[in-house]
Every structure is written in C-alpha cells, then in structure tokens.
Amino acid sequence: MMNKKGAELSMNVIIISILVILVLVVLAAFFLGGTTNLFSKIEQMAPDNLEIAVSDCQSKCQLAQTFGGDVARSSSSYCRKEIAVDTDRDKIADEMHHCWSDEIKVICPGVHNLCEAEDVIPIET
Asked: What does the domain layout of the chain look like in residue ranges?
C-alpha cells in the first residue's frame, strides 16, 4: 500500500508540471507573437513625443560620433532611427522623420552627412 501512495504523489507532480509548462508555453506564444501586430499598429498611429525624440536623437548622435569609421557611423542608430511625426496636428502620425529632418532638427557633425536615408517618409494609412 505504501508503494501505491508514493506512485500517486509522483504522478500528480508529473501531471501538474506538464500542465504548468503547457500554460507557460501558451502564454509566451501569445505575448511574443499575438501582440506583435497590435503593438506595430499602435506604434504607427501614435506620434512620438517630440521632446523625447530630440533627446533620443542627441544621445544617438553622441554615440555615433564615438564610432571609428564612416561605415560604422553611417549604419549607426542615429542614421537608422525613424520617428513618427504628426505634421497636421490631428494626433495621428502621418510622416516618419529621421533625426536630421526639419521636424526633429538634430544635426550631428561628422555623422549626418553620411546618412543615406530620406529625410521624410510619408505614412500610408
């Protein structure tokens, strides 16, 4: 009889462990895959805070200036960062700007002339 109780406890632990792992896998799949589209749609529609964008671009500029070489500077996050901007003030982002654009106005000496992307990219809705 003792052996049977030990086996039951063992089976219960195994079953509960399998269920917990299954629930964790489902939750991870939902949060990693299921919300990606939702966040990208929200990110497209909501404009970035201009003050935060300027501060972010200034720090990216300082970092890019420490890179030793034109290739590294041209591929820096200063050159690649795109910021959603609401140009017509309707609280919906309608253009993507780079740090050096006329809206953001963060000119990074020694780096911004190496950036090859367009200043302004219209957002299609």
From this structure: 2-34, 48-122
